[in-house]
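User: Thanks for the earlier help. One more: Methyltransferase domain-containing protein. Can you show the sequence and predicted structure together?

Assistant: Of course, both are below.
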Amino acid sequence: MKVGSLPCLGPIANWLELDFLPQLGVAIGGRDVLALGFSPEQIAAALEPHSPKSITVLAGAGEAFGSHAHVVGDICDPALFAPESFDVVASFAVLEHIDVAAGFANINRILRPGGLFASLFGPVWSSPYGHHLFVDPNDPLLNFALWKLPGWMHLLSSPNEIQDFYRQNCYSEEVIRAILDQIYETPNINRLMYEDYLTHMNQYFAVTRMHLLYNDVPPDIYRALRHKFPHYTDFSTYGGGWAGVRQERTPS
């Protein structure tokens, strides 16, 4: 399907604020919290005001997190934390970038009995902006978060059609290669459909609350998506907020 024929949907609906834990019914006061993906400023705005007992930050190297313990690593790595280390694991804009099955398994392992996992995450592959295209933050055709890109082009348009679209808009071959790499090759996103997230989530957590971010799907686009991906039905959910209680797992 030609990229230019796809709808431009604009911003997502039903936005969830950064201080999302109370909106998901998650209380962290007096609890040991592991924070995934939060910047120091986001921790100050969304976690510290709720008076947790402790905050441990799992993030990249080179950032300062004040008095909070800072661990560099990947949430999929079981060597980082001992079992039952935390009461709450909170993640922000992380799930779309990890091996969800491995990450959920490890979060389940490091939560204490009755522990909570809460997450606010972004574009999933089945959504209009699931390509997570981010080549130039200031260019609306190169930054998914400016809400100007044609919806579902990564699902309904071929690589050649995407190339043609950007060539017609006078982009260089170097930029076009970067676009195709980000959409199809980079390991920075996991390319999971929203229903895949639910399947993995339900294996490890009993979901207590959900807040979905979405775009409406035009009927003709929905029919095209269902025809191409017959095992999936949700092409509107961009991501959202989840909260779930750790489910006990029987050792294999």
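User: Great, one quick takeaway?

Assistant: The mean pLDDT is 95.
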